[in-house]
Write a structure and sequence with these properties.
The chain is α+β, with helices and mostly antiparallel strands. Helices cover 31% and strands 23% of the residues. It has helices at residues 11-33, 40-50, 54-64, 68-90, 97-115, 123-141, 153-172, 178-189, 252-257, 289-296, 319-323; strands spanning 237-242, 248-251, 261-268, 279-288, 304-309, 314-318, 329-334, 337-338, 348-350, 364-370, 393-398, 404-405, 408-417, 423-430, 436-437, 439-440, 450-458, 461-471, 494-499. Helix 1 (11-33) crosses helix 4 (68-90) and helix 2 crosses helix 4 (68-90). The structure holds the ligand Nc1nc2c(c(=O)[nH]1)N[C@H]1C(S)=C(S)[C@@H](COP(=O)(O)O)O[C@H]1N2 and molybdenum atom. The site of molybdenum atom has 7 residues, from loops.
Length: 500
């Protein structure tokens, strides 16, 4: 970029302003795309509000009503505009000063985001996107030879280019992720009558670090979607068709009008390795599939249901499991709240005793009654078994691998499960010694896992503990180690630890 006579000092602050605006725009877009609750700039505003002395905040709220946050955001934006222009002007002497300024601002944004409650680590991605844009745009707008940019075409063109891109991003940003936000709001507004809070039955929880009732935030999540489908309950429809007497199409309201059921059901993934945590136990509320299928009238000859979700995922479920007394349901609530979007809002299937990949369709919209050879779900061509009954399994949660515990009497504890069959006995063996029977927690039904604990004496040194469960059919869990493919892992869980 050559100086063609008149130098234009105003291009520097303009370049700073345009770079700054571009970074704010991309971080806003990233926040919306990632469904981050608060854009870093809003996080800063909220931080300021949280840390403002009560009196000041109250006066502000009285003066501004509910506009206190938008006003604060506008003030921060104005201050930032001044700062960006100032940084640009300072960059005239020392080109890297704005880079330092941007970095400091990003750190402030990052700290505010980290201070937000209920915001996962991905909030920081929006901060990084903004910082990279700030720095990239500034370097792009720097004159090539480090000299004064003249008010020539090329300098203006570059600034115009970045400004134009920033405006496009800024205009697009509010639309990105809007569907999801609308569904989030619909979910928040939803009042589900007859859905009660989860209260673990007494005696089920032995007070381990891993609670018997899994909090929703700690419940494992498995699906094939990059971004979960945003399904508005007002537009949700469930079609029950195929080999039925009467095809049914239900709205969400119509589903809720049916008789409701609630139960504790443990859900687990076929991909859970021995000792793994792809398992959780929740309080589900919904409508029994048995009664809906009876309403549709299943024709003789049908023995399966092909379930399809709003995002096109499918699974084939044996009809028996949906019509027998185990309590398979279309769930609308998890742990007393409308299903979280990630767990299938507004409606998902939950079937005790089957792995999720053949039963637990999230965002379910279609049930086709058919035969098992035609009900070929998503995972079947990829090498997984057609039928996925849950295998007998147990896990040690205490001690954890490599833990150093005290010598003397020590409580080994964990969970065991085989939904729909039930657990009658759990045994542990320390250092290959004889099997010691564990005490079992009380469970409301065979649909859930069981907590267990056993007290064993420990001498100083290295130890190894193994666990095995016995089901209600009198079968003992097999020690044979098998991989998760094609129908679930087997083998005893073993934990190595130290006593001192
Ligand atoms: N639509 C849809 N539903 C799905 C899946 C999926 O990929 N898409 N994965 C299934 C699998 S493999 C499991 S183990 C469970 C997990 O349910 P969760 O994420 O609520 O724990 O959902 C099942 N339902
Ligand atoms: Mo799964």
């Amino acid at each position: 970029m050559s100086a063609n006579g008149r130098t234009a000092g105003w291009l520097w602050p303009l370049a700073g302003l345009v770079s700054g605006g571009a970074g704010l725009g991309t971080s806003w877009l990233a926040s919306n795309a990632l469904h981050v609750r608060a854009w870093p700039l809003v996080a800063v505003a909220e931080w300021v509000i949280r840390h403002t002395p009560g009196g000041v905040a109250e006066t502000a709220i009285q003066r501004l009503g509910h506009h206190d946050k938008p006003v604060l955001v506008a003030v921060i934006l104005a201050l930032l505009a001044l700062l960006f222009a100032g940084l640009g002007a300072a960059g005239r002497r020392t080109w890297w000063i704005p880079l330092i300024g941007f970095l400091v601002l990003a750190v402030i944004g990052g700290l505010a985001v980290a201070d937000e409650r209920a915001q996962g680590g991905h909030g920081q991605i929006a901060v990084i996107v903004g910082l990279v844009t700030w720095m990239g745009a500034w370097v792009f707008l720097l004159p090539e030879d480090g000299r004064e940019p003249a008010a020539d075409r090329r300098a203006l063109l570059r600034i115009g280019l970045v400004a134009g891109a920033a405006v496009v991003v800024g205009v697009a940003a509010p639309y990105v992720g809007r569907g999801r936000r609308a569904v989030d709001q619909a979910r928040t507004r939803l009042r589900l009558s007859g859905v009660t809070r989860p209260v673990a039955p007494s005696g089920a929880d032995l007070g381990l670090a891993q609670p018997w009732a899994t909090p929703t935030g700690r419940f494992y999540r498995i699906d094939t979607t990059l971004s979960p489908p945003a399904v508005d309950p007002a537009h949700w429809r469930l079609r029950i068709h195929g080999q039925v007497e009467r095809e049914l199409t239900l709205t969400f309201e119509e589903l809720l009008a049916r008789q409701r059921t609630q139960a504790w059901i443990t859900l687990n993934c076929v991909s859970n390795p021995v000792g793994g945590d792809l398992i959780g136990n929740a309080w589900w509320s919904g409508v029994l599939l048995k009664s809906l299928l009876a309403e549709a009238g299943v024709k003789p000859g049908a023995d399966a249901v092909l379930q399809t979700s709003a995002d096109g995922w499918t699974c084939g479920t044996p009809l028996d499991a949906l019509t027998d007394d185990r309590g398979a349901m279309l769930a609308v609530a998890m742990n007393g709240e409308p299903l979280p979007i990630d767990h299938g809002f507004p409606v998902r299937t939950v079937v005790p005793g089957l792995y999720g990949y053949v039963s637990a369709c999230k965002w379910v919209v279609d049930l086709e009654v058919t035969t098992i050879d035609k009900a070929v779900g998503y995972w079947i061509p990829l090498g997984w078994a057609v039928e996925g009954p849950v295998k007998l399994a147990s896990r040690i949660d205490r001690p954890t691998s490599g833990e150093v515990v005290q010598t003397g009497d020590y409580t080994i504890a964990g969970v065991a499960w085989q939904q729909e069959t039930g657990i009658v006995k759990v045994e542990v063996s320390v250092d290959g010694g004889s099997w010691v029977q564990a005490e079992l927690g009380k469970v409301p039904s065979d649909a859930t896992w069981v907590q267990w604990r056993a007290v064993v004496p420990l001498t100083k040194g290295h130890h190894q503990v193994q666990v095995r469960a016995v089901n209600a059919r009198g079968e003992t869990q097999t020690p044979v180690r098998r991989d998760v493919v094609p129908d679930g892992a087997t083998g005893w869980h073993r934990v190595d630890f130290e006593a001192s």
